[in-house]
Amino acid sequence: MSAAKNTGSGSRDQAVPAMQRVLDNPFLLLFIGVVVPTVFYILWGIMEIVTIPLAK
After folding, report:
1. 6 pLDDT higher than 60
2. pTM for the full model?
3. How far apart are CA 10 and CA 12, in angstroms?
């Protein structure tokens, strides 16, 4: 019976991949889902302001 427990613990000793840790964390996903669009739209807005021609 202890041999059956040892076979299952071998898979637990393996490192969890980084992407799986990210996808398993709902708060990190929420943070990424809010920050990425915010940064994108801020940069997009800055680019739009820079490209406006100067009035003469």
Report:
1. no
2. 0.61
3. 5
